[in-house]
Specification:
single chain; about 270 residues; alpha/beta; Nucleotidyltransferase, domain 5; five-stranded mixed beta sheet; globular
Amino acid sequence: MITAGIDMGSRSVKVVLLEEIKVEGAKEPSFAVKKAHLMMPGDLDADQAAEAAFSAALAEAGVSRDQVKSIFATGAGRGQVGFANEGVTEMTAGARGAVFMYPQARTVVDVGAEEGRGIKTDPDGKAIDFAGNEKCAAGAGSFAEAMSRALQLSLKEFGEASLRSDKSIPMNAQCTVFAESEVVSLIHSSTPKEDIAKAVLDAVASRVCAMVRRVGIEGNVVLIGGMGHNPGFVQSLKSAMDVDQVLLPEMPEFVSAIGCALIAAERQH
């Protein structure tokens, strides 16, 4: 059986095709990711973008549409995926996907382009509590992206630069607009770029950590979402949360889509 999970984020569409694998003698079914596809929607509207990304994933996997038993959608634009059988919240999908990747996970940190959230999960991957950043980008990836542009660095260079700094420069601004002027002031005062990069990522991590603390930091911490690719942010988050380790999936941006496809499969049983 094949199911699909579609994560309609603010910047990208993630599609995962999940295949159920029968293991002889096993009580529970096993699942494997058959295909993961990411698409930037560009000028397409949400439903067109979802359709294009889903079609591309099917073509790449060599799977026909009628082989997919169920399609679930998640993310901010999940209601606009007209061909989905059902929608689930980002918290539900993120918790399920994180525990699938790391069964020991109990605290999930989800940081994408526009939103960040902390999720507490039970051993079955069910979200039991969460706290979000209330629509402020200063706790998400677009904030880091805007600040990297101010420093004329790519996001990758920005994350790597922050790792070369051992300074702690407090950033007072809680808003992207004000923070940008703060960064400009630091540039004019000849503050090294790596110190500014670290200050920005420390500020994002601090806001994210405050959310996570509202639900409580318990057990193993997993970071999902696109910011998992930023090594500077990962380091800042570990420091802010005062933990020795943050578990990082191989494809952090696909974890919610994986969770979505898993829930679709489980609802078939």
